[in-house]
Q: What sequence folds into this?
């Protein structure tokens, strides 16, 4: 009798995603009772929401987005500018400690993958009744902000009903504005949004926001078995929405702080002394003419402007990003260093982040009812869930890249030294989203590693070959590391 030979399961992207979901114990699906409960509350009526359906709000999101939790409108005139940012009023439907709330609290946030979304709320909430889909009346919280002569004047908060006039994409908005498509029915609004964005960006520059620039990659499914890796297009329209959301988050953060309302703040502290020390060392070792203590945002922006002008220093943006502290949630307000804002919260995504829903409840209680919440005691859990989402995204990209590289015939790659350890050096590829380790028979010399006739240090541009590519764990070993000559093109 012949023995059956069991084939080893072929590793593909979908297998990898399933593994990561299971290994990280991500809650999937919703119980029948919860779905039944959801269907009862979606018809919940209100007398608290004013009619704002005459304002032609639009949503601007990615092409594959389904949960639209923010819509925008603006009228720009230098002497008098009005901005309205409408955020889905999830708190109207989801009450504190009801079955939906308890489940959302456990999840902490929605989890996004190349082939699916594991939402914080059932699709009846996230993609329908709370999603600001066009032509449908939706309940929102509106932040109305007024500027005079490009200076902040005042703000109002409304619980309102809106009707979005269009679901626009970043690409679509960019094309309408840059090609001056005046025949497009949304052209005037889009022009107003851009003019308002330019004003907000200028204000951000004046207060000292750090403007990092980085290339991000996206996994694009081409079939159930195959995918492609593409660089994300950096649309100006994406930055437009970012500045509008930052405005809303900062206005709400300031209101909560000023009125001593207990809530969840989004903190981003200045870099630690150790990170600044390491950053200065890397600057000196790369002979960059720049001396600074990096105690404020201006120092980082000055260096970013300097490295933008020199092609061989482009990698330094990544090094500056690594020098930053990790943002986190906490009841104590520490400010946001990167944005240069003293009081900052996450308020604009209550469909996909539980932190934002908490802030909504704190704001509504304080602004409309003069009620103050007690201590929250939830920040640690939300930080953990956010960290888990970031970890999974990174792991899936690493393993997907390992599979992707197997199909490439390219023999030699370019990258820069990202870190130096006693056992070798880590190199980040330039043209692909992967890093690898070169184990060298070497000795430590401060932050340098000597191998043969070469001395490697953080920031150097190198070329290398792949020695081993483990698609099971996404780890890549490198070999034949060589310094790139000054005049060599890469």
A:
């Amino acid at each position: 009798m012949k023995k059956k030979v069991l084939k080893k399961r072929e590793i593909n992207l979908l297998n990898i995603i399933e593994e990561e979901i299971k290994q990280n114990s991500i809650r999937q699906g919703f119980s029948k009772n919860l779905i039944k409960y959801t269907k009862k509350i979606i018809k919940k009526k209100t007398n608290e929401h004013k009619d704002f359906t005459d304002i032609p709000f639009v949503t601007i999101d990615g092409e594959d987005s389904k949960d639209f939790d923010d819509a925008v409108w603006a009228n720009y005139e230098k002497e008098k500018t009005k901005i309205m940012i409408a955020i889905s009023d999830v708190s109207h439907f989801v009450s504190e400690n009801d079955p939906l709330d308890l489940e959302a609290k456990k999840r902490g946030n929605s989890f996004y993958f190349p082939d699916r979304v594991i939402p914080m709320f059932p699709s009846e909430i996230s993609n329908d009744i709370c999603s600001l889909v066009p032509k449908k009346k939706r309940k929102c919280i509106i932040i109305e902000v007024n500027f005079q002569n490009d200076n902040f004047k005042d703000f109002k908060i409304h619980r309102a009903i809106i009707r979005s006039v269009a679901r626009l994409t970043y690409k679509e908005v960019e094309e309408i504005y840059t090609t001056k498509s005046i025949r497009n029915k949304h052209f005037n609004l889009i022009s107003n949004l851009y003019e308002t964005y330019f004003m907000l960006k200028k204000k951000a520059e004046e207060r000292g926001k750090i403007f990092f620039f980085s290339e991000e990659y996206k996994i694009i499914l081409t079939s159930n078995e195959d995918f492609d890796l593409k660089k994300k297009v950096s649309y100006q329209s994406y930055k437009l929405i970012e500045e509008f959301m930052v405005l809303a988050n900062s206005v709400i953060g300031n209101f909560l702080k000023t009125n001593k309302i207990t809530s969840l703040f989004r903190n981003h502290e200045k870099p630690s002394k150790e990170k600044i020390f390491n950053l200065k060392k890397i600057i000196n070792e790369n002979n960059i003419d720049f001396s600074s203590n990096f105690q404020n945002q201006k120092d980082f922006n000055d260096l970013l402007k300097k490295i933008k002008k020199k092609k061989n220093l482009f990698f330094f943006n990544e090094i500056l990003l690594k020098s930053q502290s990790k943002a986190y949630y906490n009841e104590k307000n520490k400010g946001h260093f990167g944005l240069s804002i003293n009081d900052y919260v996450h308020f604009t995504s209550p469909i996909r982040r539980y932190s934002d829903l908490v802030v909504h409840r704190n704001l509504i209680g304080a602004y409309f009812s003069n009620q103050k919440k007690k201590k929250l005691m939830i920040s640690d859990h939300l930080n953990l869930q956010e960290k888990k989402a970031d970890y999974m995204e990174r792991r899936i990209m690493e393993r997907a890249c390992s599979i992707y590289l197997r199909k490439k015939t390219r023999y030699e790659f370019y990258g820069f030294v990202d870190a130096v350890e006693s056992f070798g050096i880590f190199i980040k590829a330039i043209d692909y989203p992967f890093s690898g380790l070169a184990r060298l028979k070497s000795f430590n010399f401060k932050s340098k590693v000597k191998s043969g006739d070469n001395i490697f240090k953080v920031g150097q541009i190198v070329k290398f070959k792949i020695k081993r590519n483990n698609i099971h764990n996404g780890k890549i070993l490198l070999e034949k590391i060589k310094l790139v000559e000054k005049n060599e093109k890469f």
About this structure: The mean pLDDT is 91.
